[in-house]
Amino acid sequence: MRYVITVVVAVLCGVLFLAGCSKKTPPAENPKPSGNQESSPAPSSAPATEVVVLNEANFDSQIGQGVVLVDFWAAWCGPCKIQGPIVEQVAKQISGAAKIAKLDVDAAKKIAQRFSIDSIPTLIVFKDGKPVQQFVGITQAETLVSAIQAALKPQG
Fold first, then answer.
1. Domain extent listing, the chain
2. Where are the beta strands (DSSP E) in the chain?
3. Of 54, 80, 94, 124, which residue is the catalytic one?
4. What's the pTM?
């Protein structure tokens, strides 16, 4: 019986982990980022392979033109820590064809509310300021690259 309970608990934990974190219930011990570099404003002339850090002041101007992948994340979110390196990998693979960015949902609550971000990580592909595709939970690089490439194709 003890083995069955252990297996059930392990499976449930795995499912919850892969599904992502609910933005509505951050851990009490660290609900906001501690002023690390990830919450600092984005440099305006970031190289194409860097992930641009977005905030409420620069969000609309950064996503307004072209194709942009935005990773909505938080410092306290375990799955977001797994997604971060995947997003950096996508930035290298895309190599300037699209902008890759991230937005800390705790530091930019109005933006997160505007796009109804209830679970993180959430990744949205924008084209000329409009969302065209959305992913919730840990999303592999190949899936994100394919979505970006599809958004880069001219509509016809």
1. 2-152
2. 21-22, 52-54, 67-73, 99-104, 119-120, 122-127, 130-136
3. 80
4. 0.72
